[in-house]
Amino acid sequence: MDANAPPAQDFPRTDKKPSFPIRDDLRTYLRRYRRERDLPVTYERMLGFHEAIPLTDETGKPTLWDTVIYDPTEMRTLNEDLKHIYALLRTDGDISVFSHLFVDRIDFCTFGNSTPFRVRIVNAYNDNQDYFYIKKADASRVYGLELEHLLSPNRLNFITHGSTLVEEHIVGLPGDIFISRWLQQNELRPIRIAKEVVKFNERCFVRLLGDMRSYNFVVLLTPDFDDWQVRLRAMDFDQQSYNGRKNFYLPQFFKENTPLVKFCIRHLHPETANQYKREEQAIILQRAHLASERLGLLLHDMTRDPISPPEKIHQLREELAAHYGRTDYLRCESMGALIRENLESIRRENGRPVVPGLVPE
Q1: Is 55 inside a domain boundary?
Q2: Helices (H), 152-247
Q3: DSSP bridge pairs for 102
Q4: Three-class SS state of 137
Q5: Who contacts 101 (Cβ-Cβ below 8 Å, separation ≥6)?
Q6: Measured between alpha carbons, how far is 355 from 302 in angstroms, rounded to an integer?
Q7: Contact 287, 151 (CB under 8 A)
Q8: What is the pLDDT of residues 220-246, one digit of tens each?
Q9: Considering the domain boundaries, does residue 6 fall inside one?
Q10: Lowest mean pLDDT among 33-37, 80-84, 98-102, 318-322
């Protein structure tokens, strides 16, 4: 992150990314690592509701979600099948320990590319609740989920089945709520917030996860023995490796994140910011080395998958070549190849050995 406040940019939200089908190569990868499973419920089946009621928040304001209602006969079987999916996410399909759980509510959102269903699961003994999502499968989103699993500190459970994608709920305080309600709280040490913002910024940039506006990531606050730990975590992977603008992959440039960026710049010395950036690069390389075979297979498939038009790839490769000062980018013809070059660039910056299986093609 730059020492001086970067100019916020108004990236348009009307340039809707198309949905890309999961091709055979990626499907083979997903089966190999047990991401592709047989599911009793598909996205198309979820569309069979016959009534939708607007869902409001705790203050009575409308949300982007509608609660949907199904035919009573369908609802009985659907509930059991949804519990089975939840068991696949949590216990690898062992439904025997979930007899006391029930589906409390199903919500539907028409906002965004994935138009998801959100299923709320409740424990009958203690009212504890959890969520998972059923979405239209999209190849770029799947690449985003898998890259997050391999290159970030966060593990992710998701399942694909044909044109259906099931994702677990990512817990945390939405970034926009954190900025408006928590950013100036005395309980939080500013340096810990700033450090995590720098690390999150770098993670998104290296693995080319775009559109990390404040409402597309969450903040996890964990009490420690002497303070609070802070972590920023992406929760929307729709814009994985699609846009052609370099700054689209840097959360610091979104105007929605300006208060957070200015807060960090006030509390963080430029040399310290560079230290945290290099720390995150080193950790990314360690993760890439540990998962080199799996990551190599994923990027191999990604280099052959047309998840972004050539003009966007060419624009991005030129901007990344200028950013890192490496003409090697100009040979790249895919988003997967650009991620390989990003990993190679930070490897060189950190003076690390070559990661097996990730040599740029």
Answers
A1: yes
A2: 175-181, 190-206
A3: 122
A4: coil
A5: 83, 86, 121, 122, 123, 124
A6: 18
A7: yes
A8: 998 887 788 899 999 999 999 999 999
A9: no
A10: 98-102
Count up the domains in the chain and report the number. Answer: 2
Residue with tokens 């993670």: 203
Residue 359 lies in a domain: no
Minimal CA–CA distance to 239: which of 348, 122, 95, 335?
335
pTM strictly above 0.70: yes
| CA distance linking residue 145 with residue 148, whole number of Å | 5
Identity of the residue numbered 267? H
Q: Which domain holds residue 159?
A: 24-168
How far CA 56 is from CA of 72, 111, 165, 194, in Å, comes to 24, 15, 26, 33
Chain centroid offset of residue 109 CA: 18
The answer on pLDDT for 193 being more than 90 is yes
Residue 34: partners with Cβ closer than 8 Å, 6 or more residues away: none
Please count the other Cβ atoms lying within 10 Å of the Cβ belonging to residue 100.
10
Residues 292, 147 share a domain: no
Written as one letter, the residue type at 194 is A
Q: What share of the chain is helix, strand, coil (3-state, %, to 5)?
A: 45, 20, 35
Domain boundary (142, 168, 194) is at: 168
DSSP state letter for 317: H
Q: Helix 292-303 and helix 335-350: axis angle, to 10°?
A: 140
* Predicted pLDDT at 1: 66
Question: Are 237 and 322 members of one domain?
Answer: yes
List 135's β-bridge partners, or say none: 165
Range among 55-69, 174-188, 311-325 with highest mean pLDDT value? 311-325
With residue 339 as reference, give the H or E element that holds it: helix 335-350
How far is C-alpha 128 from the geometric centre of its chain's CA atoms?
Answer: 25
Would you say 239 and 307 are in contact if contact means Cβ atoms under 8 Å apart?
A: no
Q: Would you give the distance in Å from CA 2 to the centre of its chain?
A: 24
Is residue 177 domain-shared with residue 239, that is, in the same domain?
A: yes
